[in-house]
Design goal:
274 residues, alpha+beta, Deoxyribonuclease I, Chain A, 5 helices, 14 strands, disordered C terminus, Endo/exonu/phosph_ase_sf, magnesium, double-stranded DNA 3'-5' DNA exonuclease activity, hydrolase, EC 3.1.11.2
């Protein structure tokens, strides 16, 4: 048996308007060359998705748009993602475009944009928690399936105080509430590995810096974009990080791309001699 060396780089990026930030997206794709990309906050209807430009960059894509708000997409380099699910199960009346699943290179990739939940308390926070409960239920089934799965996206939750520059001005924010954090802990308790934290257990790493009060310039950030790995993928984690440079570009999204590199080497049959 021989060994075919291969890695798979999977990234998640809240683009905050794909039409507005298309040049930034294309520049990042060219420089960093991720194999799979989960995008959130497309902020465009399906017909407004720039598929021609994405194709020209070498990527196939599936997407689930929504006018002015939300919207998610999965991009795959050199191939078309095979759609497995559109929308999170459990609420047929939910019209918000926040969830996609696709098979790419033998991995089931889930792209999610969890509700922000502000202001809280109130109906938006109730919707956030209800959506989170649906995610937890669905994720349990994915985990129990035994398939290699990555849950990637903007979770809109700050897991711990180590994932924020300072809690003081965020104490009333939905991202920091005990209920939000408890949902995230319960999700992880199913067995998922928080890849960025597993790779950098003691570092202050942020994925989001808002546009106010010089938060980017002072590195006053939050870690709210997460990639969770199923049991069989966790041992294959080779690296994880944040492409901070993207946040420093002109007219940038308030998020930076966050990524993992997985070892997907497969054993192949060697040639037999005569």
């Amino acid at each position: 048996m021989g060994l075919m060396k291969k890695t798979l780089k999977i990234a998640t990026f809240n683009i905050n308007g794909i039409r507005t930030r298309l040049p930034a997206l294309l520049a990042w794709l060219e420089r960093e060359a991720p194999d799979v990309v989960c995008l959130q906050e497309l902020k465009t209807i399906d017909s407004g998705f720039p598929i021609e430009e994405i194709h020209a960059a070498g990527y196939g894509a599936i997407w689930h748009g929504q006018k002015s708000w939300n919207g998610v997409a999965i991009l795959a380099h050199g191939t078309d993602p095979i759609e497995a699910r559109r929308g999170l199960p459990g609420a047929d009346d939910d019209t918000q475009s926040r969830y996609l699943e696709a098979a790419v290179e033998g991995v089931l990739v889930a792209c999610l944009y969890l509700p922000n939940g502000n202001p809280q308390p109130g109906p938006k926070f109730d919707y956030k928690l209800a959506w989170f409960e649906r995610l937890i239920r669905h994720a349990q089934g994915l985990y129990d399936s035994g398939h290699p799965v990555v849950l990637a996206g903007d979770y809109n939750v700050i897991p711990t105080d180590e994932d924020i520059y300072n809690t003081r001005s965020w104490l009333k924010d939905a991202l920091l509430q005990p209920e939000s954090r408890d949902c995230y802990r319960r999700l992880l308790a199913q067995g998922w590995t928080d890849a960025l934290r597993a790779r950098h257990p003691d570092e202050r790493i942020y994925t989001f810096w808002d546009y106010f009060r010089q938060h980017w310039q002072t590195n006053s950030g939050l870690r709210i974009d997460h990639l969770l790995l199923s049991a069989d993928l966790a041992p294959k984690l080779r690296d994880a990080g944040v492409d901070r440079w993207v946040r420093g570009e002109p007219h940038a999204s308030d998020h930076a791309p966050t990524w993992v590199v997985l070892d997907t080497a497969r054993k192949t049959a060697g040639k037999k001699g005569k």
